[in-house]
Structures are given as structure tokens and as C-alpha cells.
Amino acid sequence: MGKFLSMYLDSPMQAWGYMSKFDRRTSFNCPTKSGVIGMLCAAMGIPKSDTESLAELAKLDMSVYSLSPMERLTDFHTVGGGFTKDLNPQNIVRTAKGTIGNTVVTRREYLLDAKFAVILGGNGDLLVKIESALKNPKWGVWLGRKSCIPTVPIFQGCHDLMGEAVESAKAAFDKTYGRSCEIRRAITEVAEFADGSDSLMDVPLDFSEGKRSFSARRIRVE
């Protein structure tokens, strides 16, 4: 039986990588499906190599509602410092001559003061497992990067109707800040291409190192 699981994502900083590689790691303007599923995999203790469980999670419909304005911050990190080639070869910078060079500065973008309602719809039995994991996660749960710790509990209930799920996430905002919020933007998945307004390459197929791959989904932005 289909259900809707409500999540409220709130943190001083969030980061949702999308088509971002090398030394500049930008953030998409809302939670991506790969980012949310990665968070659920951590909570449920699903390893990166478990493509079967990943496929089941990817079947869930995901809707995202922006509940507040936000700003962007670009921070920098260094990569490769303090390590030898034997200890951490993948992060040691090589020069053109093959010798070890200096550390690399990587620029990483964050969303500041963003609040989102994320609704998952689909198999009720799977949503119950997700509920249990979010209440008692096996591994650490954060909103995109380890520095992005949730301000309040993520799980906000399982519901029979989509509208109820959205309202429960909005109620978490109201309770936290003592005021009502409005939906500023809604991003929903659509089954037919003509019903959508954009496509995102963020449905995870494999999270394994060296095999990371994604497929597209069609969305409507309102």
C-alpha cells in the first residue's frame, strides 16, 4: 500500500553535489535524489556496493519543497597535506615530472539557512524501514557533507496523503522558529516527459568507488 514519508531538512549549512568534480564542488539549490538516498543508505547501514537495495530506494518518488530563502557560501579546503604517497596515494598531488607537489585548494559551496520538506512516496513496507532507520541510524546522517548536521530530527511521520506529509514538515518549521512558513518552490517527479519542465541526472545506480553512476529523472518545477 502506498504511503508518504515526510522529512524536514534544516541545518545552518547544507551541500547537495550535482555534476560537480575536481577542485570545485558546487551545491545544487535543493536536495538531490542521490544525496537523499545516500543519507538513507547511511541511516539504514546499506553499503555502497549494495546496488539491489539502492535500486529499491531509487524507485521511491521524491518531492522537494523549499520553505525559506537561502544564501550561498564558498569555503576552501586543502587536499593532500600531511600525508605520504604510501599512506594516501589518491590525494597526493603529482607534478608533471611525476614528483609530489604541494597541497591543492578545493573550493566547496554550501547553502546557508536552507529549509526543505522532502516527501518520499511509494512502498509502505519500505517506508516503515526508512522510518525506523531515521529514528535510530546505523551510521552518521548529515545533509550532504559531514559538517552539515541536522538542526532537528529529520523524520516527521508517515501519512496516507501527500498533503498531510507536506504539512507535517511545515509544522516542524513552525515549531522550531515559532512562525509559519510558505512553500516557495516545489520540485516533483513526473511520469511523462511532456509533463515536466527539466531533467536531473541524479538517480543513483551505483555508489561504489570507481563505479559511481546515475540515471535521469523528469521533474516539474513550480
The CATH topology is given as: Alpha-Beta Plaits
The CATH architecture comes to: 2-Layer Sandwich
Question: What does the average pLDDT come to?
Answer: 90
Measured on Cα atoms, how large is the radius of gyration?
Answer: 19 Å
Helix % is: 10-25%
The CATH class is identified as Alpha Beta
Order of helices and strands: EEEHHEEEEHEHEEE
Instruction: Quote the beta fraction.
Output: 25-35%
Low-confidence parts lasting 5 or more residues at pLDDT below 50? none
Global shape: globular
First-to-last CA distance: 28 Å
| Strand ordering within the main sheet | 8-1-7-4-9-11-10
Q: What is the tally of beta strands?
A: 11
Q: What would you call the structural class?
A: alpha+beta
Quick summary of this structure?
Helices cover 22% and strands 33% of the residues. The protein is of the alpha+beta class and 222 residues long. The chain has a single domain (2-71, 111-221), classed as 2-Layer Sandwich (Alpha-Beta Plaits).
Q: Which properties best describe this structure?
A:
33% strand; seven-stranded antiparallel beta sheet; alpha+beta; 222 residues
Task: Tell me what the structure shows.
The chain is an alpha+beta fold and 222 residues long. The chain has a single domain, classed as Alpha-Beta Plaits (2-Layer Sandwich), CATH 3.30.70. It has 4 helices and 11 strands. Strands 8-1-7-4-9-11-10 form a 7-stranded antiparallel sheet, with helices on both faces. Strands 2, 3, 5 and 6 form a 4-stranded mixed sheet that branches. The two termini are 28 Å apart.
